Each structure stands twice: as C-alpha cells, then as structure tokens.
C-alpha cells in the first residue's frame, strides 16, 4: 500500500519537477540576460562619461580659443588705431573745393579755419584724400589727412573744438580723430547718452578707446559701456535742469 502511495506521489511530482526545472532554466537565462544587459549598460555608461569628459574638455578649449581670438581682434584693432594716430578726419567740406591738390588746399586753409594754428610753424601734411562713399557725389565725402607730427594733430583737434570752424557761407566743419571701424562704432554708441547729457549742460568726453568720462558739480564718473552710463546717470538726467551746452564734442 505504501509502495503504491510512493509511486503515485512520484508520478505526481514529475510535472512539478519539470516545471521547477523549466523555471530554473528560465531564471538562469534571465540572469544571463541581465548580466549581459548590465555589461552593456556599463559600457554605454562609460562611453557617456567619456563623451561628457570630452565635451567638457572641448568647451574649455573652445572658451580658451574664443578668449585668444578676442585678444587677437583687440590687438589688431589697437594696431590699426595706432597706424591712424596722426590722421584727422574733416567733414562737411563741399566736394571739389580742394581741386587736384587736396594736400595743398588743407595746408593753406587750416590756419584760416582754426586761427590758433596761425602762430605755429607750417603744419606738414603727409597725404590727404577723400574717403570712398556710396552716397551721391553731391553729398560731401569725408576728407582724411595724415600729419607728420602727432602734436600738430592734437593742435588741430583742440583748436577746432574751441573755435568751431566754418566755411565762408557759414557751413560748419568738423574735425575728429581717425579710428578703426571697431573703435569708431564703440565711441559712436555713446552718442545718445552724450546728447542727453549735453542738453543738461553736463561736461562729457571720451578717452581711448571708448571710455566715457563725465564731470558734474565736482563729481566724476567713468563708464565702459553706454548701457552702464544710462543706468547710472538716469537720476542725474532727471534732476538736472537744462543749461547751455558745455560738453566736449570730440
């Protein structure tokens, strides 16, 4: 009787054992797959870390290159400005008045336009020419002339600022330093804030390359950007009443 029971139990356990065996096989297979996936994940993770490290390295290198490029650009701008150090720009001069000898014309007329120059030794000019313009030929093109001596260039700019030269018909002439396009644009960016300050009778001037200096009621300010100047001087502009122009127009 006991033997029959054992045989029955044994027969009943066969499918159970088979199921357990199948489960074990399935678990082993799943374990192997998980191990494979873990290995692949580790590989992908390591690759991601390598990529991120390379990206950080590239970003650092790019930032360094951009910094060096900016410095090179500044150096080039500085070199160009230095090459124009003895130049003066003359605006509002009617076209053709200089004839075929712009150098001789400028040399002859400077003491007439700027009386302060009449007592100086003859101002020596290396060359003079009109700059190219896409505008109509009826509109005056700027004249640029190069002086042999920097001191003459300064005397012209200082004298023009004080005497405000004009032609015989009253047309105002303007004289200004000759800078590179980059420096000129930086300086021109202050035009709006300088005009507002000028209307308030507040003295302003620019120093090279493009730093705005403001003097008012014993106070002095220095600004590296137009936005910085506007932000700081807004209250001053609102509180100061309009007075005659005293700003330096250079």
What layout of secondary structure does this protein have?
Blueprint: H1 2-83, E1 87-91, H2 102-113, E2 125-130, E3 143-147, H3 150-163, E4 174-177, H4 181-188, H5 191-199, E5 203-207, E6 211-216, E7 219-223, H6 226-239
Antiparallel strand pairs: 1-3, 1-4, 2-3, 5-6, 6-7
Helix pairs in contact: 5-6
Organism: Knipowitschia caucasica (Caucasian dwarf goby)
Protein name: LINE-1 type transposase domain-containing 1
InterPro entries: L1_C, Transposase_22
Descriptive notes:
- The protein has helices at 2-83, 102-113, 150-163, 181-188, 191-199, 226-239, and strands at 87-91, 125-130, 143-147, 174-177, 203-207, 211-216, 219-223.
- By secondary structure, it is of the alpha+beta class.
- It has three domains: 1-83; 87-178, L1 transposable element, RRM domain (Alpha-Beta Plaits), CATH 3.30.70; 183-239, Rec A Protein, domain 2 (2-Layer Sandwich).
- The strands form two sheets. A four-stranded antiparallel sheet has the order 2-3-1-4, covered by helices on one side. Strands 5-6-7 form a three-stranded antiparallel sheet, with helices on one face.
- Helix 5 packs parallel to helix 6 (226-239).
- It is rod-shaped and about 145 Å long.
- The model is unreliable at 242-250 (pLDDT under 50).
């Amino acid at each position: 009787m006991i033997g029959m029971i054992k045989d029955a139990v044994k027969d009943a356990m066969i499918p159970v054992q088979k199921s357990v065996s199948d489960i074990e096989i399935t678990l082993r297979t799943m374990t192997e797959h998980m191990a494979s996936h873990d290995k692949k994940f580790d590989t992908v993770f390591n690759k991601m870390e390598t990529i991120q490290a390379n990206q950080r390295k590239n970003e650092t290198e790019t930032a360094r290159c951009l910094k060096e490029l900016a410095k090179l650009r500044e150096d080039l701008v500085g070199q160009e400005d230095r090459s124009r150090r003895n130049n003066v720009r003359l605006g509002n001069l009617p076209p053709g008045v200089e004839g075929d000898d712009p150098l001789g014309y400028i040399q002859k007329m400077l003491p007439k336009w700027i009386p302060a120059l009449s007592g100086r030794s003859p101002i020596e000019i290396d060359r003079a020419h009109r700059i190219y313009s896409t505008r109509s030929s009826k509109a005056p093109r700027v004249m640029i002339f190069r002086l042999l001596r920097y001191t003459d260039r300064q005397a012209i700019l200082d004298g023009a600022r004080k005497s405000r030269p004009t032609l015989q018909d009253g047309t105002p002439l303007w004289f200004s330093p000759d800078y590179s396009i980059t420096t000129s644009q930086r300086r021109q960016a202050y035009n709006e804030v300088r005009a507002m300050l000028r209307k308030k009778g507040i003295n302003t001037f620019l120093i090279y390359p493009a730093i705005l200096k403001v003097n008012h009621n014993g106070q002095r300010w220095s600004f590296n950007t137009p936005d910085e100047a506007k932000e700081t001087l807004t209250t001053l502009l609102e509180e100061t009443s309009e007075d005659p122009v005293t700003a330096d127009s250079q």
